[in-house]
Amino acid sequence: MIRSRFLRSSILVLTTFVAISCSDYSPTGPQVPAQAQDGLLSGLIGTVTGLLGTVIRVIGFVTDPNGIPVHAVAWSPAHVSEVRSVSATIGVNGGTLSIPGSDFTITFPYGALSQPTSITIVSDASGYVSYDMQPHGIKFARPVIVTQRLGNTAVYGTPQALNSFGAYFSDNLLDLSGILKALEIETTTIFSNSKGAPEVETWQINHFSRYMLASG
What we know:
This protein is of the alpha+beta class. Helices cover 18% and strands 42% of the residues. The protein contains three helices and 13 strands; from the N terminus they run H-H-H-E-E-E-E-E-E-E-E-E-E-E-E-E.
């Protein structure tokens, strides 16, 4: 079961980097046809560690309607906390949106959406690594992949970086300080840098609402 989850996670991560490598941080990068994706992913499985580093931890999906106690991860003091956003129309072929100032990229694989849909991602000014993903409530036929770099977060270079993950929380949760109740912990893959320290995370998400980088 763990191996199967890891393989699915690796394939989705590779899909992300097929798009990222072409996007050059444009709101929507060139789209990869469905027929080409299988060949590209097969060829890249052996080189994923060169793209992101070594996989050092995979945190599996957890959901609890009563809430899962977590702490929101703050940005580092050097990071400028301000509202940043990106919008685009994404169709059945997928695409990529990025917010460079928040070290954030989201990739929609082929078939995640069945029709052209206006997508907006907002990195808020709360001081925490949190995002409002719109339209709220939309569900995806294939998991969407978020890539979050950790270098400008408060957990970077600390033991907590290895215990951080993507979490879904209520739309009306505005105060992100203290212990929070996350409704879901998303499947999260943590990659290391050249020194073996946590550097990048990818999250698999199946619907839109608000998400944050959290720690247990």
